[in-house]
Each structure stands twice: as C-alpha cells, then as structure tokens.
Design brief:
With about 325 residues, the chain is of the alpha/beta class. The protein contains 12 helices and 11 strands. The protein is globular.
C-alpha cells in the first residue's frame, strides 16, 4: 500500500521530536516535517494553507474553524500550554497595583487573537470585574514594530482597540505610552532590567496553582490543525496521527522523569517534573477531549465574547468524530 504523503509544520518541541525524526511513525503516513518558528507556521497556514498539518494558535484556530464551511479541523494534540498570570507587565509610574487598576488604562498585546491575552482578558472580564470595554486596548508587535493581526475580527460593541505600527509594546511600555502589556514572552525592556517595568503579579506561580485547583483549566496556547479535505479523503488519518503524537509525547515525558536520560542538564528538573505529574493526576501535559474539556470550553467562550470566534463551539465540533474512541482490548 502506498503511504499518504503529508506535510507537517511545527516548532521543534521535545514532545514531537520522536515523531518528527522518525523514531515514531504514523501508520500509513509518510511525512515531510518542516521545523519552523511558530509565528511562521501560523502566518503561512492561516493565510495560504501551505501545509497539510500545522501548529496553530488556539485563538486563531478558533476564528478559522468557526467560519461557515470551514476548511480546517483540529486534533486534540497540544503543542504549547502555559498559565499566564506571569504575562502582565506594568510600568510602575502608572500606579497599577491590582487588576482593577487597569480600568481606564492603556493595555497592549501583540495581536487581539493572541491566545495568552485572550485567556487573561477573559479572566478580567468574567471573574475580576474589569470588562473588555473598561480598557483602552493597544495592538503592536511585542519587541519589534509592525506585527499584524492574522485573522478577521468582529469586536464587541464599545471595545476600543488602537493599532500602532511604528513602535513595539516594549518601547511603548518603557516610555509610559501604555500602562501594561500582556505578552506571552517577557518584553525586552523587562529582560534588560528597565527600573520601571515589573510584573503585576510577582506571585504568579501560587496564583496559577490556585487557579488550576479551582477551575481545572490548564490554558492551551497552540494546537494541531489539518486541512479538512485530507480527513474527508482519508478518514483514518486523524487517529493515526493522534496515536503517533501520543507515543512521541509518552517517550518525551519518560525521559523527563528520568534524570539519567533527560535531554536537559538541570539538577532538579526530574524531581520537579514528577511533582507536576502528580499535580496533574499522572499526566503533566494531557492531550485529548475529556482530559481538557474545561479548557476547550473556556477558550470557546472567551474567543466568542471577544469577537474572534464566529460562534461558541463545543470540543466535539472542532475535532474529528470519534477521534478519542477507545481501542483497548
């Protein structure tokens, strides 16, 4: 039988590496894996569908999968997931001490459909009494000017969003032209030790553990998407890909828990990893639908509220039917 040839584009994650290099194979598939930066994956897949299977921002995926007659579908495979209370950076001169102090302030993010910012705006709006309309939102590149939105938006009534093309959020924050930035990675001004730039929540780790214990939401940043036509023509493809991604992740975690074979030269990493394994009930990086239902449903709500998704979706709608069917005998 001739194997199906598929192009796959992702960042070089350790939990994908065994699949990418061929130590793990997806049955019936011959892949050509492009190891690209995630912003390149996003831009090329969202604009031109240049790959059959691609890493994509969960927020951008939410916009595109909810289009009428969408041409993409997801796999419940997580590329990147992180809690984001560490992502609020403020200028001390703005006098911001609490999240409520952001009312009436200028707050920037690299894109409106930026998954880290989506989660935190949703938390502000739904849990903390700071509505989307209470803030003047700014969009600009994180550490370089010129970043543009990659998907269409339908902003809620009353939301004020200003796009700045000639300055970065780092520049705007350090100069005091914005009061706060919600950025997935620390802005350059923070990394370089600007005396006025600090995290709003220096106790972010404790906040994130409490948030997970209370909500069971483990924020997903990037997932895997594929062209729907591939699945329509080859219904077996999704599950075979899923199996390979699962096995690749299993091997990665096995290495992480064993300091004798870990890829990472840090002395207590394995001990910390085992603590995280226990925290997340045996799997510190779960794939699947039920394993992540609170998180899928939260992003569905938040992206719809924020004018990114065209409608609120259920997990069953955005993944192939039967993708998680048990095959244990």
């Amino acid at each position: 039988m001739t194997k199906l040839k598929l192009s796959i584009a992702t960042t070089d994650y350790d939990h994908f590496r065994d699949f990418r290099v061929g130590d793990v194979r997806a049955e019936g598939i011959d892949h050509n894996w492009l190891n690209l930066g995630h912003h390149e994956c996003f831009a090329r897949f969202t604009a031109n569908r240049e790959f059959d299977v691609s890493e994509i921002s969960f927020a951008k995926f939410s916009a595109q999968v909810t289009r009428e007659n969408s041409d993409i579908i997801g796999l419940p495979v997580i590329c990147s997931r992180l809690f984001r209370f560490s992502s609020f950076y403020v200028n001390k001169k703005s006098g911001i001490k609490t999240i409520q102090d952001l009312k009436g302030k200028k707050v920037g993010s690299p894109e409106w459909a930026h998954s880290a910012a989506v989660y935190m705006r949703g938390w502000m709006h739904n849990e903390m009494g700071v509505s989307l309309q209470d803030v003047h939102w700014i969009q600009a590149g994180a550490n370089a000017a010129g970043r543009e939105e990659k998907v269409e938006l339908n902003l809620p009534e009353g939301v004020q969003l200003t796009r700045i093309k000639d300055k970065s959020l780092s520049e705007l924050l350090s100069s005091g032209e914005i009061d706060c930035a919600i950025i997935a990675r620390p802005p350059t001004c923070f990394l370089e030790g600007h005396p006025d730039i600090i995290r709003l929540f220096p106790n972010f780790l404790e906040m994130e553990e409490e948030y997970y214990d209370r909500t069971k939401v483990y924020p997903i940043m990037h997932i895997i998407a594929m062209r729907r036509s591939i699945l329509d023509e080859n219904p077996w493809v999704a599950r075979n890909l899923m199996n390979a991604f699962q096995e690749s992740k299993r091997r990665s975690l096995e290495r992480l828990f064993d300091p004798a074979v870990s890829r990472y030269p840090l002395p207590w990493l394995a001990s910390y990893a085992r603590r995280m394994r226990d925290k997340f009930e045996g799997d510190p990086f779960p794939y699947g639908i039920e394993e992540n239902r609170p998180t899928w449903e939260q992003m569905s709500l938040y992206t719809f509220q924020q004018g990114i998704a065209h409608r609120q979706f259920t997990p069953e709608e955005i993944f192939p039917k039967g993708i998680m069917t048990s095959v244990i005998i």
